[in-house]
Task: structure prediction
Amino acid sequence: RSAGREVRVTREVRPPVPQPAIVEGPLGPIEARVEDPAPGAAPRAVGVVCHPHPLHGGTMQNKVVHTLARAMQELGVPTLRFNFRGVGASAGAYGDGIGEVDDALAAAAWARDRWSCDVLWLAGFSFGAAVSLEAASLARPAALVSVAPPVGRIIVAQVERPACPWLV
Result:
């Protein structure tokens, strides 16, 4: 109920089944999952979500990462979640944040190509928020979502504001 009125959801949103994907990254294959709420339809945007710190158990299976992707899917946007280098089946080893920005850029390019869509929604949680913020200047997303950015830990210098709408 909201202000005495009952709110009803008129349609049930069924999450898409995650499909495995391989993104060719700078150091080799990047393990990923694709979730497309409307297969075969031309999307208005594509979403890429970056996970928390690889050295502290962060993966594309993180519940916040999963929730970010699901929110995009509920808006009809297909998503790509991926493991940074050295995580899961992704090639390479931790790249001190710099290499992970390259991974995010590769994932964004792959998603745009996969769905023939230039409009990118980029998101990240914690370490992934720092990586996506750093990648935004080159990836040129239409929107950026940063959940719990690690200000004062990983983001220690002043950061340029992205040239797109930014939800923190």
